[in-house]
Amino acid sequence: MRLLIYGMQSSGASTLAFLLAQKPDCAAFVDIWTMYVAPALPGVGDVVAKVVVTAAFPLAHHQERFRPDCTILFLRHPESNYRSLATKSYRHHCGFMEEKFGIYDRAFAGKCGVDAILYYEDLIVDPVGTLATFNDLGWSSDPGFLRLRRKQADIRRWNELQYPGIIDRLEYGMGAHRSGQLSSEFASLQKMPAPGPEISAWCPTVTEHYRVLMQEYPRKWSAGSI
Question: Domain 2-225: which topology?
């Protein structure tokens, strides 16, 4: 199976990709850099790849090359995402930050080419439940993935073994995910301030979506298919 994760920078999507990369004998491009498109790969092996929203490469271009069986749109509260990304030196790489939030918003509004939507807050609050969702999508997962037995070096070695023809031409990392450690403090919505004028203007649809969700808080977050 080929699984493509599409989300904003600083959304936590690389944490999800790293957890899914715990699947034995899968290749995993956990955090493909902004200046690259998801790779065209030979064969039919299990692969997970995470790409971020940019003004350079639309989601359809990643899909055309990677040919995923399932595409996940990964959401995080836009104000939280904005506050995190605004501190990063790469915030304007491959598109100004406001452009990327706009593209992200349109991807959520249209849902074109997206098979399922998952939430950062789900992943943090209920990682076991989030992993279980992937069994339904066709990517076998189990709670043992949270032990992170498969290390970054192991994943890279497997990638190099399976795809030696592209490994020196595609730059990717493992993400800034605290080695996959999850803490609910990173997903608290109770203390989240109202979105500021910037993010409300750049990302109105996702902002409104989260406003509705927060009216229902506290609730058990649930990841859902479209």
Answer: Rossmann fold (3.40.50)
